[in-house]
Every structure is written in structure tokens, then in C-alpha cells.
Design brief:
heterodimer, A: about 300 residues, alpha+beta, Immunoglobulin-like, three-stranded mixed sheet, B: Cytochrome C Oxidase, Chain A, 19 helices, 5 strands, globular
């Protein structure tokens, strides 16, 4: 992940670019006004002593009128930039993203021939196609913010919000929850992978399929199904069908583990499974006591969920 | 008294002796607990508020330490969330609002030339309630029970389902304490300004600081009911299972945000408007001319106070409200730049060629102009809906509001402390220490907070206890944390100066700055009765308009505490009114109220049984003692 993967100043989408194109002129104008005020202040302090300025009333009036004009101009400019941001695009890709303490559930509804499926903690989008993200919250308020693509939009229990965006640049961006949502608000990130349409279609087909056969064949599957794991998690193709935790059907295909906490490696899977409370204190996954053999088998199973 | 040409020294002494007999508080602890002198209450209000500033500052340093590098290990998530909640709550509810009201409590009666604030017992009650509310919050913090839901306590996170334990209840009940104390002060200040001004101080002669406190008090009176409603509904949801904010039962999550910000945004102006008054007062004194455009300044103050109620939605631009409606709030939020701009232009006109003496208070005014105007500019940016969708809840906003609150209110406040310190203590604050502290505070503040604009644009959200090393935030965070140490050093120096000057400072005399307002017409510190004779005002700048002899009014009785009531518009004498004597009942009523409020965190029955001692103390407080209230 490069350093500009989570920056409003490095737009990779149409909406973020539109906002930035308003940001710079506004910053320049307001910066100039600030400098002008300081300049007048400095001149006023340097001036030789004398009575109050003769045309002070006129100057104050003119400056106030100028303020009114700037305010009107900036209000109109914001409105003009806002309008296309909320205009409905034709045939957008619809993705439902639900914020939860402290992870993201991502659902791709069926579209044409492509079946729908639910995944978690990773959002993939095709390059160049408008996207409509339907944002919801399962527990408390969260806020979806991927600064490289668009401004943020809150996810509020009891309300349906939507965010429109069009990715213009392939790559991995980073979204992060922007509304304080409790203990692990800081550890609630989401990789957003923008890829060419064909690659996206392949990924989509893979995700819709059940878990890999080689994973379902290993001994770790029984550990997963018989211990507490299956009470909260789903692995399609196995008996695990819990719904309070992230869907793990293709866990190992994701970029990160634990909502952006760790890069997806076998070591990370083992560490997380062994002790999630040390890595992300307060998260809703309990520590499940496992023997060394069970842990190893489970890690093998999880790493095969590609 | 500066000049009393009609009184001989002997008469003066006799007069003061009889005034001392009725106005002085008892010596010792009992006197300290029972006094209703607005100066004593105001002074302890100010000291307490600065104590909370120091505590909130220590929390800020803890956060800066934690964020100085990625994956910081000083604080865990649970502690950090308590710390940032405590920082915001302490700074807003226990420092900024109370300290501004405290300055009003101390100064307004002196500036309008009366002997005590209106409803002085209510004023004393207000202080005790504030003190106990602050103590509740901080004791909870020491017991690891502090609220951890942010100073804004958004539901459902603060609701019964996701905010278990008593943490959110303690926050909500602490809000009740501050509501009660703020309302009590506001009512007293409004009545003092309307009815107790010195004869001749018509509306157009009221000092700008007094105007500012009057507008602020009205904003308090109009904004507080909204938070009363919100925090009461939250407590009811948590305590007795009402469902105001539960969408599953027909409640609404956003209702909380509307109610909170309908109070929360005016709250910012409750803090800022008094600062406008302070800046105006300091400028007028050191520029040796009245502030340019008195009428424009007053209208701008009133305009700011009105507009403050029309822009709360700009805290909610990302909640998914209709876009056109949001654009209205963009317009109203930006419109506040007009009265603010007008004030700044008037100040610039005042400064133009005035060659002010660059004393420490003036330096703080210059620091205010530099910092506040920058914060105003970023305020215009976050008022724009599209820009705000990127900036909201990021470190850019942290930078923005610290620029407007520290730059716009704390800098003027520090200037005001230096400026009025001689009135409070009789001694001047040390100038050289004051300059060093100013430099550290001004420089440290800008170095610590300016980089946060960039951090926000680089995507760093607020209220995170840590961040991963692969994001490029480490360098600026470290820089900001080191600069915060400079800022802290500046505050330490300021506190040291204030502590030391109280004993070793240069004696000030009644009017060390050659100022024009009435508080400088009496000794420093003033006697318990403020003015031996009530001054009569014949211009906007009474001490400068008549430098040799201030006219005075006579005829007040000396056998009891008595004030002169004047008419609202022209301040013509109307009546003499008795002012309440010292009483222990405000303290006892505050203790009873505190017991009821804290008890009610645990059971709703506390409201029933706890109301009995409250009622009893109030009955004793108001027991009629057969003295006529006023004589026309």
C-alpha cells in the first residue's frame, strides 16, 4: 500500500477529483484574504500615529460588502459542485456496505447472470463504472470514507444512505471509519481494490462460488465447525452458517485481516485465531482456547479459503 | 475612588465604615462558604475553570504522546477513548463556558457600576453546582468510570444497548449540572445589565464587553433547553427504558444530533462572543481611542448571536440529509463570516495608526487576529458541503476548531487575564514572563495545530487511539506532539506568572492602564461594596470623558445592602432595592441537588426522594424575613 492510499489530495475517482478542484481555488482565495488581513494589520501598526483614518467607515463598509460577495460566491460554487455528486448515474453497480463494530459487511446483489454474495472487510470495484454504495449500520453510527474516491457518508441505524462514486484509477485505496463508533474505531479500515472490469468479473465469479474444495477437505474444517467459530461465521460449502461475524468463505483471498489490521498471511491468521483480544482489544471475537494441533489445523483450513 | 470632590476625607471614611458593616462577609471558612459577593464567586469560578483547563491540557498531552508515533503504547483504546471524551467535555463544559461566564460574573457588575450581581444567592448556587458537577466527572475518571462516548455522546453508542455501565450516565448528568449553573449565571447577568446599570448608562453607553456578555447570556438561555431535552431523553432511555433514540422502537438516532447541535453550535458562540468583548476592551484601552463603529460592533454581536441558531446542520452534512436543505445551511454557516468580518474590520480600523502600547494583553490580541482569522477561513471551508464531506471528522476539523476556540477565545481570555489581573488582585502580572509565555503559547499552538490540517487532508480521522505505520502520518504527528510541549511550557509559565504575581507583582493602583470603563473607578481589588458612591455616567467612556471628577449618585441607605435600579433603555433611576445578605442555603441547596442528580444515575426513585431535601433547602433559602424588597 503506498503512502497516498488514504488521501483526499490524491484523487483516484471522479467525485474526489471534483471536490479537490473546488478545494484548491477556495484555499487560494481564503489564504489570500487571510494574508490581506494580516497585511492591513501590519500596515496599521506601522503607520505613524494619528487620528482614526478619515475614510474608515467607507473602508469597513467596502470590506464587509466584499465579505458578502465572497460568501455568496462560495455558496454557489459549493452548490454547483454538490449537484453532480448526488446525480443518479445510469446503470451503476450496486453494493451494500454495512458498518458493524468494528468491521464491514459487503454484499453484492445479483446482477444479470452474476449471482449475489456476501463478503466482508474488502470492497472491490470495476474501473470506470459508476458505483452506488448503499450504506447501513447494524449497531452504532459509522461513516464510510475512502478519501481517494469520494467524500464520506455516514452509516446510521434506521436510515438508508447512499454514496455515488466512479473510480478512475486502478489500485488499492484505504477506507476508514470516520465516525467514532466505540472501542476499536481506530481499527476499522477497509481495503478498496479498483481493478479493470475483466479482472473484477473474474473476482466476482470466484467470490460467489462456495469455499474451495481443498479447504473443505482438510481436518481444520472439523475444528471450525465443532468449536465456537461456526456460531458467528459462515463458510459457504461447510456447515458453518453464523451471521454475527464476517463471512469467511474466501477469507484468504482478501488483502487484510481484522478490518485492515494485519496483512493477510498465514502467520497473521494463526496469531489472530489464537488471541484476537490482544491484537484488537475489545473486539467481539472471543478468545477460543485451542490446542496447538487444533490451531495448526484451523490455520491451514483458513489459509486455504482462497 | 478616583475622585470624590464633594466628600471630605472624614465623611468618606465614615461612609466606608458603614458600607463595610453591611457588605463585608464574615471572616474565616464560614464567610468563604456563605458569601454572595460576585467578586468572590467570580474569582473562585475563574480559578476553578483554569484548574480544569490545566487538567484538560494534561489529557491533551497524553493524547499527543500517544499519537506521536504509530502504534503508540502509552494508552490502550479504552483509556484513550475516556481521555479524549474527558478532554472535550472538560474543555467545553468545565473550562470554556464557565470561564467566560465567570469573567462576566466578576466584571459586569463593576463595569455597569453596581454593588452586586442580580440574584447573588443564585449566583453562589451556580458556582457550587458547577464545582460539584466537575468533581463528579473527574472522580469518575479517576475510578476508570469516565464517559468514553465523545463529548457529543452520539446515540446509539451512548444509548442503553451499546453504552453499558454508568459511563454515559455520568456524562449526561454532568451536563445537567452545567446546564443549571450556566442558566443561573445567564439570568443574573441579563437582569444586572438590564436593571442595575449606573444612572446615565443608556443602551448606547454600555461597554462592549457588557454587550457581549448580555448577548452570550441570551444565547445560553435559548440554547440550553435543547441540551436539557436531549440529555434528559438520553437519561430516560438509559434509566427507565424510554425509546427516544431507538430506531427499532420508532425512535430516531438523528434526533439526538439535531438537539445536541442546536445547542452545540451556539455553545461555540457562547465561548466566542465574550472574547469579542475582551478584544474590544483591550484594544480601546491600549489604542487610547474607542473601538471604531460601536453600533456596528453591537449589531454584529447580536447578529452573531442570532445566526448561531441557524447553522447547527453543518455538523451533520454527512448524515444524508437532503442536499438542497444542506445548501441552505452552507449559506447560513458562511453568512456568520459577515458579522465576524465586520468586527475584524472595525478592530483593524481602531488599530490603524493608533500606535498601541504592545503590552501582553495587546500581544494576545494580535495573536488572536492571526489565529482566529485563519480558523475563520477554514470555517468557511467546512461550511461548504462538498469540501466538508472530505474534511468532516478528520484532523482538519481538529485543527479548524482549535484555531477558532483557542485562537478565537483562549488567546483573548489570556489577554483579558493579564488585563484585569490588577483589578482582581491589586497587582500587575510580570511583563517579561508574560511575553515569554505569550511567545511559547502563540508559537507552540500554531506549530502544534497547523500540521493537523494536512493530516486531515491525508486522510487521518479524528478520535483514533492509534494508526498503522504504513500510513504517512508519523512525521507530522511527531512534530505536532513536540510542538504541543512548547505550548504546554507556555501555559506553565502563564500559571507560574499568575501565581507569583499575586504576591510579588508590582502594585497596580485603581487604574494602571488609563482605561475608560467603570471597573477602573474603584480600588484594586474593589471593596465588597464595589463603589462607595454609585457613579453617574455621561458618556461611553466615563473615566476618559470626565478624567478629574466622576459624578456620583447619593441617597442609598447604609443600614442594609442596597442597590440602585435603573430603567432598561435610558438607565434612569427607578428604585432602591435590597440585595440579599450572605447565606449558607445556596451551598446546602447545591449539595442536595448534587445528591439527587448523582443518586438518579442509579435509580429513578432518587428524583422522588431526592427532591425532598432540595425542596427543604429552597424553602429555607427563600423564607421571607420581613424586609421590603424595594422602595421606589
Amino acid at each position: 500500500m503506498n503512502g497516498a492510499a488514504q488521501s483526499a489530495l490524491a484523487p483516484g475517482g471522479a467525485e474526489a477529483a471534483a471536490i479537490l478542484s473546488l478545494f484548491w481555488p477556495v484555499t487560494a482565495l481564503l489564504g489570500a484574504i487571510w494574508l490581506a488581513v494580516l497585511l492591513v494589520l501590519a500596515l496599521g501598526l506601522w503607520r505613524r500615529p494619528g487620528a482614526a483614518p478619515r475614510r474608515a467607515g467607507l473602508a469597513v463598509g467596502a470590506a464587509t460588502a466584499g465579505t458578502v460577495l465572497v460568501v455568496i460566491g462560495l455558496t454557489l460554487a459549493s452548490y454547483l459542485v454538490t449537484r453532480p455528486l448526488s446525480a443518479a448515474a445510469e446503470a451503476p453497480l450496486v453494493v451494500q456496505v454495512q458498518g458493524r463494530q468494528w468491521w464491514w459487511q459487503v454484499t453484492y446483489p445479483a446482477e444479470g447472470d452474476a449471482p449475489g454474495f456476501t463478503t466482508a472487510n474488502e470492497l472491490r470495484l470495476p474501473l470506470g463504472r459508476p458505483v452506488r454504495l448503499e450504506l447501513a449500520a447494524a449497531d452504532v453510527i459509522h461513516s464510510f470514507w475512502v478519501p481517494n474516491l469520494a467524500g464520506k457518508q455516514d452509516m446510521i441505524p434506521g436510515r438508508d444512505n447512499a454514496l455515488l462514486l466512479t473510480p478512475r484509477q486502478a489500485g488499492i485505496f484505504r477506507a476508514q471509519c470516520a465516525e467514532f463508533c466505540g472501542m476499536q474505531h481506530a481499527r476499522m479500515a477497509l481495503p478498496v481494490v479498483v481493478q479493470p472490469a475483466a479482472e473484477f468479473a473474474r473476482w466476482r465469479a470466484g467470490q460467489a462460488a462456495p469455499a474451495a474444495a481443498e479447504a473443505l477437505a482438510v481436518a481444520g474444517r472439523q475444528v471450525f465447525e465443532s468449536r465456537q467459530c461456526s456460531a458467528c461465521h459462515t463458510v459457504r460449502g461447510s456447515e458453518a452458517a453464523g451471521s454475527t461475524g464476517p463471512d469467511l468463505t474466501h477469507l484468504a483471498s482478501r488483502e487484510t485481516l481484522g478490518a485492515g489490521l494485519l496483512p493477510m498471511t498465514r502467520g497473521a491468521l494463526a496469531a489472530w485465531t489464537a488471541d484476537p483480544q490482544t491484537l484488537k482489544p475489545g473486539n467481539n471475537m472471543p478468545l477460543v482456547p485451542l490446542t496447538a494441533d487444533e490451531l495448526q489445523a484451523l490455520t491451514e483450513f483458513l489459509a486455504l479459503l482462497r | 475612588m478616583r475622585a470624590q470632590p464633594r466628600d471630605t476625607g472624614r465623611e468618606e471614611a465614615a461612609l466606608e465604615a458603614s458600607l463595610a458593616a453591611v457588605w463585608s462577609s464574615r471572616p474565616g471558612l464560614l464567610g468563604w462558604l456563605t458569601t454572595v459577593d460576585h467578586k468572590a464567586i467570580g474569582r473562585r469560578y475563574i480559578v476553578t475553570a483554569f484548574l480544569f483547563l490545566a487538567l484538560g491540557g494534561v489529557l491533551a498531552l497524553l493524547m499527543r504522546w500517544q499519537l506521536a508515533q504509530p502504534e503508540g503504547r502509552l494508552l490502550g483504546p479504552d483509556r484513550y477513548n475516556q481521555v479524549f471524551t474527558m478532554h472535550g467535555t472538560t474543555m467545553m463544559f468545565l473550562f470554556a463556558v464557565p470561564v467566560m461566564e465567570a469573567m462576566g460574573v466578576y466584571l459586569v457588575p463593576l463595569m455597569v457600576g453596581t454593588r452586586n450581581i442580580a440574584f447573588p444567592r443564585l449566583n453562589a448556587f451556580s458556582y457550587w453546582v458547577y464545582l460539584f458537577g466537575g468533581a463528579l466527572l473527574w472522580i469518575a475518571f479517576l475510578l476508570d468510570m469516565a464517559p468514553d462516548v465523545g463529548w457529543f455522546a452520539y446515540v446509539p453508542l451512548a444509548g442503553p444497548q451499546y453504552g453499558p455501565g454508568k459511563r454515559a450516565d455520568i456524562w449526561a448528568q454532568m451536563i445537567t449540572f452545567t446546564e443549571v449553573s450556566a442558566l443561573a449565571v445567564a439570568v443574573g447577568l441579563v437582569v444586572t445589565v438590564f436593571k442595575q446599570r449606573a444612572p446615565g448608562m443608556s443602551l448606547d453607553r454600555i461597554p462592549l464587553f457588557v454587550w457581549a456578555m448580555l448577548v452570550t447570556s441570551f444565547v445560553v438561555i435559548l440554547a440550553m433547553p435543547s441540551i436539557v431535552l436531549a440529555s434528559t431523553a438520553l437519561i430516560l432511555d438509559r434509566l427507565v427504558g424510554t425509546q427516544f433514540f431507538n430506531p427499532a422502537a420508532g425512535g430516531d438516532v438523528l434526533l439526538w444530533q439535531h438537539l445536541f447541535w442546536f445547542f452545540g453550535h451556539p455553545e461555540v458562540y457562547i465561548i466566542f462572543i465574550p472574547a469579542v468583548g475582551m478584544v474590544s476592551t483591550i484594544l480601546a484601552t491600549f489604542c487610547r481611542r474607542p473601538v471604531f463603529g460601536y453600533l456596528a460592533m453591537v449589531l454584529a454581536l447580536v447578529g452573531t448571536g442570532l445566526l448561531a441558531f441557524g447553522l447547527w446542520v453543518h455538523h451533520m452534512f454527512t448524515t444524508g440529509l437532503p442536499r438542497l436543505g444542506e445548501s441552505f445551511f452552507t449559506a447560513s454557516s458562511m453568512a456568520i463570516a459577515v458579522p465576524s468580518g465586520l468586527q475584524i474590520f472595525c478592530w483593524l480600523a481602531t488599530l490603524w495608526g493608533a500606535r498601541p502600547r504592545l503590552t501582553v494583553p495587546m500581544l494576545y490580541v494580535l495573536a488572536f487576529l492571526f489565529t482566529f482569522v485563519l480558523g475563520g477561513m477554514t470555517g468557511v471551508m467546512v461550511a461548504s458541503v462538498p469540501l466538508d464531506t472530505q474534511l468532516h471528522d478528520s484532523f482538519f476539523v481538529v485543527a479548524h476548531f482549535h484555531y477558532v476556540l483557542v485562537g478565537g477565545a483562549v488567546f483573548p481570555l489570556l489577554g483579558a487575564i493579564h488585563y484585569w489581573y490588577p483589578k482582581l488582585t491589586g497587582r500587575l502580572m510580570e511583563e517579561r514572563l508574560g511575553r515569554w509565555a505569550w511567545g511559547l503559547v502563540f508559537g507552540g499552538f500554531n506549530l502544534a495545530f497547523f500540521p493537523m490540517h494536512l493530516l486531515g487532508l491525508w486522510g487521518m480521522p479524528r478520535r483514533v487511539y492509534t494508526y498503522p505505520p504504513e500510513l504517512p502520518w508519523g512525521g507530522l504527528n511527531l512534530f505536532s506532539s513536540l510542538s504541543a510541549a512548547l505550548l504546554a511550557a507556555g501555559f506553565l509559565l502563564f500559571f507560574w506568572n499568575a501565581w507569583r504575581s499575586a504576591r510579588h507583582g508590582e502594585a497596580a493602583g485603581p487604574d494602571p492602564w488609563g482605561a475608560g470603563t467603570l471597573e477602573w473607578a474603584t480600588s484594586s481589588p474593589p471593596p465588597p461594596w464595589n463603589f462607595t458612591r454609585i457613579p453617574v455616567v455621561e458618556g461611553a467612556d466615563p473615566l476618559r470623558d470626565s478624567p478629574d471628577a466622576l459624578k456620583v449618585a447619593a441617597g442609598l441607605r447604609l443600614d442594609r445592602r442596597e442597590l440602585l435600579l435603573t430603567s432598561v433603555m435610558a438607565a434612569e433611576p427607578e428604585a432602591r432595592e435590597s440585595s440579599p445578605r450572605d447565606s449558607v442555603w445556596p451551598l446546602l441547596a447545591a449539595i442536595a441537588t448534587t445528591a439527587m442528580l448523582i443518586w438518579s444515575i442509579f435509580t429513578p426513585w432518587a428524583v422522588v426522594w431526592g427532591a425532598i431535601p432540595v425542596a427543604a433547602t429552597l424553602i429555607f433559602w427563600f423564607w421571607p424575613r420581613g424586609t421590603p424588597e424595594d422602595e421606589s
